[in-house]
Amino acid sequence: QQTVNSIPKSTSKMAPKKGGKSKSKKDVEPKKVKAKADPLFPARPRNFQIGGDIRIAGRDLSRFVKWPRYVRLQRQRAVLYQRLKVPPSINQFTKTLNKNEASTVFTLLNKYRAPTKAAK
After folding, report:
1. How many CA atoms are closer than 13 Å to the CA of 111, on its beta-carbon side?
2. Alpha carbons 99 and 39: distance in angstroms, whole number
3. Residue 91 region, left (φ>0) first, then alpha (ψ -120 to 50), else beta?
4. Does residue 119 surpass a pLDDT of 80?
5. Residue 75 DSSP SS3
6. Is 48 within 8 Å of 54 (Cβ atoms)?
7. DSSP label at residue 25
8. 114 phi-psi bin (left φ>0, alpha ψ -120 to 50, beta other)
9. Among 50-54, 60-64, 87-91, which stretch is predicted with the lowest mean pLDDT?
10. Which of 10, 19, 101, 106 could form a disulfide with 97 if both were Cys (CB 3.0 to 4.6 A apart)?
11. What is the pLDDT of residues 78-96, one digit of tens each?
């Protein structure tokens, strides 16, 4: 009594393999001697999982570099100035004068300098 859904198992088998030429001792190549592993660099299997040994080619790794101290400081300063609201009395010192403007300011202020002891 077979049901409609049951599929009969096939009784046929695959064809037997044809016999190939048997290699004589002259045709067989001698086994190559493996180079002995260096004990300083032991071989270990590569890990292909996520976060494993294999690095994706072309990925930008500049974020993970240990940057010099001055680079880190100037980047942190730039981020702080973007995030903080600096009061104007402090912010005036962030913009410096060039040499030409500084010389004109100092000549102007030199006129209003307090008198020295010798001048009194």
Report:
1. 4
2. 64
3. alpha
4. yes
5. helix
6. yes
7. T
8. beta
9. 50-54
10. 101
11. 998 889 888 889 888 888 8
Tens-place pLDDT, residues 16-43? 777 666 666 666 666 776 777 788 888 8
> Which tokens is 43 given?
């071989």
Closest to 63 in 3D by CA, of 75, 51, 50, 52: 75
Which residue has 């005036």 as its token pair?
92
Which two three-digit tokens encode residue 86? 């600096």
Q: In this structure, are residues 84 and 91 in contact, taking their beta carbons and an 8 Å threshold?
A: no
Cβ(54)–Cβ(46) below 8 Å: yes
33, 25 contact by CB (below 8 A): no
Taking each continuous run of H as one helix and of E as one strand, the counts in the chain are 3, 0
Identity (one letter) of the amino acid at 38?
D
